[in-house]
Amino acid sequence: VDKTWTGNDNEVLKLLFAESYTDDMSNEAMNLLVEGYAGSKRFQDRLRNFKVQRWTSGENKSVFGSVGGRIPFEDMLKDWMDLGLITKKIVNDSLVIKKYEDAIEKDASIKQARQEAAAKLTVDLVNEEDLMFNGFRKETIK
User: What is the 8-class DSSP label of residue 57?
Assistant: First the structure.
């Protein structure tokens, strides 16, 4: 029995690979990525070329200038490399770019959650002030 990182059969891995493509990340995509991560344009046009593996379709769309989707997780990439479908360089490049894309996305979701919490707090405070101004206590309104 062949051991794979993901536990998938080799034929399943080949089918999954067929739903991915190799992305030679454009200069524009790299600049968007570095600006999103660093928060400035200071490092634009300073990065080497990266070649990554991405999903072609599905819900996993990338928001960092690439046409396709997100980069698969590490074990999937290793399995594809072990099958000879991609090179070690593509695996390494993919993992580097995935780290940055994931960090940017996590930061964006944290900021959104903070904004939503602040908006709710503001609404709650305004409603309390309205109630006090009109002479009502919160407990009396159902």
Answer: S
